Amino acid sequence: MMDGRVNASRTSLERDIWALLSQVPDPEIPVLDVVALGIIRYVHVQQDPAAPQARSIHVGVSPTYTGCPATEVIHAAIRGKLAAAGHANVHVDTVLFPPWSSEWLTGEARARLSEYGIAPPARARSLRHGCAEPAVRCPRCASTQTQRVSEFGSTPCKASYRCLACREPFEYFKCI
Amino acid sequence: MSPYAAHADAGNSKRPQAAASNPATGTRCSSLPDDPRFGYALHLGDNALVLAQRLGEWVGHAPELEEDLAFANIALDLIGQTRYLFSYAAELEGKGRSEDDLAFRRDPHEFMNLNLVEQPNQDFGHTIVRQFLFDTWQLELFERLQASCETRLAELAAKALKETRYHWRFSAGWLVRLGDGTQESHRRVQDALDILWRFTHEFFTPGDVDRAATHARFAPDVATLRAPWLARVEPALQEATLIRPADVTHAWHGKQGRHSEHLGHLLAGMQYLQRTYPGAQW
């Protein structure tokens, strides 16, 4: 499923592009970059051996939520980043299937979220059965005495929680 | 520009682009005269768009900030679905219309949404009941549509299903809290249920778009959704201590483009800018 992320099969140019993409922050949760968020599905370079200058770069990106307004900002940021590094002819493709899952956040992304004050998503039980609703750990005081205030939050990917121990409100990155 | 307009599976071999068959299930579409996919995509997109517009009317007015956010978030998901479906419909049509043209430059009789979703907002409980009835229907439909032989519809259904499960948890949760809440909240949701139940008949009554889709075998027969829909609705009503209203077999024809006057008012507000300043951008 994570075919595009297997290092061994990448060319050095593709590796460079992946490295550049990992410098593109999510506009709403800037501690996450788009690679750590798990939304970059592939990087393909199409090169004509006869005309090395005529290559094109395709970056496959999955939206986290269909209506997430950050999607277009992310696409523009990817084009901007690659253009600034001298890559022309960049195409950003929307990849809907398989649908993005919070399971695709990297371990580092989960740690960064927690440090930033957002509780990382629960692990899904299975694709079929979706997410368990475990006790969410407060990112401030680490108590699991927490309560969901709303399934929804300030962005489509987050829900609102409060901690009953330290009394602080916090956000939870939804398991989807 | 739509993020979906350039939907290119370039190099992504997970699902073949030209597929008239779904490799996951081995189901195949039959030949497609007159492309029934266009009307079907519009029908699904219109449901999502009109309901999103209704939910959007709550922004700034919901009883609690959290519910305000919830309606806005659900509306956003629905608009995301609409954009995908309209971009797809526009591609199928191939006449140069954009997703925006389909949203803002069609008249009420060209909309094929269910009558339920255009019903005007009343109180919070009424909106919850409308949402619950619709979410449950969408869950049942999309669970089947994700196995469609039509790749683009299957992909959308698989994606939207994740969001719809969230919506359903929200609307079913509130249905129970209000129904099994105070006398006043109970009375209000029971009233809403009594008013809105009649519109659910249209969910399961095939319109032309459904018949064409079923004939081409890329969508389930809506009549078969009724039993599983009820199996999900009834336990929730029971837990909410609500009484299931008598079925009204009045034929609503939203899917045929016949609407209540409410849709005209909704579209007048929604389309005002593009009608007055065609092509305006910011």
Could you please describe the fold and organization of this structure?
The complex is a heterodimer of chains A (176) and B (282). Chain A is an alpha/beta fold and 176 residues long. Chain A folds into two domains: 3-94, Fe-S cluster assembly (FSCA) (GMP Synthetase, Chain A, domain 3, 2-Layer Sandwich), CATH 3.30.300; 113-173, no CATH class. Chain A contains three helices and nine strands; from the N terminus they run αββαβαββββββ. In chain A, strands 4-9-8-7 form a four-stranded mixed beta sheet. In chain A, strands 1-2-3 form a three-stranded mixed beta sheet. In chain A, strands 5-6 form a two-stranded antiparallel ribbon. In chain A, strand 2 (51-61), helix 2 and strand 3 form a beta-alpha-beta unit. The longest helix of chain A is centred in the middle third of the chain and has 15 residues, at 70-84. Chain A is elongated, with a radius of gyration of 18 Å. In chain A, 40% of the residues are buried. The model of chain A has no long low-confidence stretch (mean pLDDT 88). Chain B has 282 residues and is an all-alpha fold. Chain B has a single domain, classed as Ferritin, CATH 1.20.1260.10. In chain B, 58% of the residues lie in helices and 0% in strands. Chain B contains ten helices and no strands. The longest helix of chain B has 29 residues, at 65-93. Chain B starts with 35 loop residues before the first helix and ends in a 6-residue tail after the last helix. The model of chain B is unreliable at 1-19 (pLDDT under 50). Chains A and B meet through strand 1, helix 2 and strand 3 of A and helix 2 and helix 6 of B.
